[in-house]
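Worked example

This section walks through a single chain of length 172. The input is the sequence exactly as stored; nothing has been trimmed or padded.
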Amino acid sequence: MKARRLRKTAAHLEITAFINLIVVLVPFLLSVAVFTRLAVIDLSLPAQTTGKAEQLKVDNLQLEIVIRPDALEVGDRIGGLIQRIADVNGAHDIKTLAALVHELKIKFPKQTDATVLSEQNTSYDTLVQVMDVVRAGHTIENHQIVRTELFPQISIGDAPIPKQNVALAAKR
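Given that input, the structure is written out below as tokens.
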């Protein structure tokens, strides 16, 4: 008895529908894609100072802004506190900080570095606002608003523990 064998033809791959899908999908994805611009700010850690040699320099400002939950403390690392800016309506007073930093830049025009110290629970938004105010400001020249560079070299770090909290911890 003769065995019957079926003739098998090679299967053809039908990719027309897939190509149509790709032709429509690629332009759609390209038109919807969001292109983001990342900005990077070079930061450095605060430098350790011995204090004695630096105290001899009268015109040397080591600007330090400490972000506390209830205020902003602007000071000189060697000279101490310059001004404590209390919160206004439960938020940090950024406008007063901007005016004070601008005055300090006028007094110390060659100084370019500052240190921003924040406590652990400081929000990212607050930290960025303070850094922006310290880094650059705006002035009016010839009836035009001009962006000025104040203290562009910013170092960030952890705020020191307030003295009253240290005294409470020592009693325990």
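What to look for: The radius of gyration is 30 Å.
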